[in-house]
Amino acid sequence: MSELFDAVDALVASRSPLPPPAERRRLRQAHGLTLDEVAAALHVRRATVSGWEAGKTEPRPPERDAYARMLKQLAQLYSPGAPEPSEDTAVPETRVCAAPAPSVAEPAKTRTGPTAPTAEPASGTTALRPVAVPPPVATTWPTSRRQGARKAAPAGGADPGFENGPLAVVDVADGQVFAYCVGGLVLDVPAKSLPALVDWTLREGHLGQPKLSGPGKDADPLLVLTQSALERYGLPTTLTEEERLAGRIPEDHKVIRQLVRAEWKLTKRGFGPWARIYRPATGSERACVQLCIPSWNALDSRHWGEAGQLPPAELARVLGVYASRVMTPLGSTAVTGLELMTALHPPTRASEPDADGRRHSEHNPGSLGREPVDCAPCEAPDGHPLLADLPRFRVRGPGEKLFEEAYDWARPMTDAECTLRHLVGIDVNMAFAAGANGLVVGLGAPTHVKAPVFDAKLPGSWLVDLSHVDLSRVKVAKDKWAGLDPSLLPCPFTPKGERPEGPAWYATPTVAYAVELGYDVTPIEAYVRYENGRYLDAWYSRLRDAFLATMADLGVHADMEPADFLAAMDGYRGRDPELAIVVSAVKATVKGGLGKLRERPRGEGWRPGEPWRALSRPTWRPDIRAAVISRTRINLHRKIVKHAAFTGQYPVAILSDCVVYAAGGTSPLDFLPYRDGKPLPGGFKLGINPGLVKHEGTQSVLWGEEVRERFNAPELNLARYIKDGQVTDKDSGE
């Protein structure tokens, strides 16, 4: 009989009444519960609860009964007319007077007592009263809603102007506009037009981020507009093909006319996926708001994954974590990576007071300054004004052009390697960031020197013949030489791994490596930079910390044992897909920021020999980009040589920061020479820190041979496909 009763109970539970989706969400937020907390209690995924609240899916037994029970209890607490819980009640109360969002890296401590009393509200303003704030959990916080936009007293000495965080996702629901901020805070937005929204943001939104460097500037507030917000404010939800190619909506659009009438201005890039709306600064006061429009492809899916399709609160969390650990995004990850360099090393600073006690703007030591500098002719890309006198179709060879790029090299497998069963790829974490760490780069203009004596501490470009460097006999340590098989190794001096045939231009790290291998060098000429410094150190540190902190949140920590690290990396993205998006964005910020140092023309009617817009930036520095890539490639080659000298194993393919070896097993531990848990000194080491390696993928040797045979390409770069084994076309080398 009890089985029948259980069956009846289950049948009743399967039809447990549930409130409408919007009410489910309201009740959860009223109680200060996060999606993660509800999901953990019901043993479901976060996305499942989000789907229930959005009305996309309905819960099923047995979760439905428990979910209905929770909502029923919350409805008793927060239904209209229900008595409000007192402050000493165990139930956390809706936060209506929001303290600043807690730092992602350092969660705020629980406040159990009342906050400082606030002044009487102005007429027509909803009164704010102090409440207890529940402690944050991991990198999510209770969602709360703040009525009105009255300024509250900040906790912990935070800037009251930024008490609501760096950004907000603006969305419309049931006719009401809401701003979803970091930390789960939701603000009511009264603005009925875009100019009014900009005014509200600057006067009452309390959004922004403190400067990253003493002489720098605070970050402007960022508003992310959802499709419903675009409709509300008269903007298209998607761009036409013509608008997409132009990167903006027409200047005669009605919303732009509204902004002009309200005396707001747009930057030269116009009103596009990333728009900047401003009024000229008056003194130290700045009036500027940045817009991000995901449905206009502001958040490139190659770098931001599915961020553009996330609900407002979840998108605010993703962008908020990125902003707190990197900086408030100002555009693409590439643009943000470049702007981060400037934010950490502003071009100017305030001088010491003069005789009248006044301070003036002066050059900030260690920065790139306010004015761009010309590159050396060998560092100039094709079409640069310095090369205007060259014939239009002239192809410059290595003796005329600096060509420092990442590896794209592969070779046929040996008979011995074909007897092994697997191809295992390892990938260097944040390889280009590690290459920037501690690197001395030029800060000013180059100086041309004839017949210079090579100085490894002097950044620059050197014309030198390195064809005499023989990899069959190289130094692998002080006074220790090793014999290698050069036919199985790429040359360290060229991206394709080919041995140079004569003089060529190289960045300082490349020439220094030739000396390290035990060979003399005699430069013919050079462009060196006597004004130099470790410009990228702070940039590297900020991005490294962002990467490590986010990976730690995903369960992958520094200094893990090799086997534990490999296990932790297996499926780490599925533990929190939103934080996994942040990881991808941080890595894209590194590569994109370095790429922007040599940005090429982007349409605009440009013709070879004419300047393009990027050349006007002090951060247009192809020499710095070349130095970082050179050092990254050399760092990788050094590890390969150490590994070959110690184990006799040689790489089969290399693509940028991925190296493929033939091995008897499927794991990197099947060929990396660990002894008592210790890696080979100077070789590859498993770990999450930048410069260490992770498992990229494993395929069979038979797969590799079949792919090469299918495309009739014995040197097809298998590193390009080792991750998932999918080969869609012949390797183009790009």
Protein model, in words:
With 734 residues, the chain is of the alpha+beta class. It contains 20 helices and 23 strands. It has an eight-stranded mixed sheet with strand order 1-4-3-2-5-8-7-6. It has a five-stranded antiparallel sheet with strand order 11-21-22-12-23. Strand 7 and strand 8 form a beta hairpin. Helix 2 packs across helix 5 and helix 16 packs antiparallel against helix 18. The longest helix is centred in the last third of the chain and has 26 residues. It is globular, with a radius of gyration of 29 Å. The chain starts with a helix and ends in a 24-residue tail after the last helix.
Write a brief structural summary.
The protein is of the alpha+beta class. The protein is 29% helix and 15% strand.
What share of the residues does DSSP label as strand, in percent?
Answer: 5-15%
What share of the residues lie within helices? 25-40%
Distance between the termini: 71 Å
- The strand line-up of the biggest sheet is 1-4-3-2-5-8-7-6
Say how many strands there are: 23
The rough form would be described as globular
The radius of gyration is 29 Å
What is the arithmetic mean of pLDDT?
A: 86
Biggest sheet statistics: 8 strands, mixed
Topology:
Elements: H1 2-13, H2 21-30, H3 35-42, H4 46-54, H5 63-78, E1 144-146, E2 167-173, E3 176-181, E4 185-189, H6 194-203, E5 222-225, H7 227-232, H8 241-246, H9 254-261, E6 265-266, E7 274-282, E8 285-292, H10 301-304, H11 312-325, H12 333-344, E9 348-350, E10 361-363, E11 408-410, H13 415-418, E12 422-428, H14 431-436, E13 441-442, E14 447-450, E15 460-465, E16 473-477, E17 480-483, E18 503-507, H15 508-516, E19 525-528, E20 532-533, H16 537-553, H17 562-569, H18 577-596, H19 622-647, E21 653-655, E22 658-663, E23 693-700, H20 701-710
Parallel strand pairs: 1-4, 2-5, 5-8
Antiparallel strand pairs: 2-3, 3-4, 6-7, 7-8, 9-10, 11-21, 12-22, 12-23, 13-20, 14-19, 15-18, 15-19, 16-17, 21-22
Helix pairs in contact: 2-5, 3-4, 11-18, 12-18, 15-19, 16-18
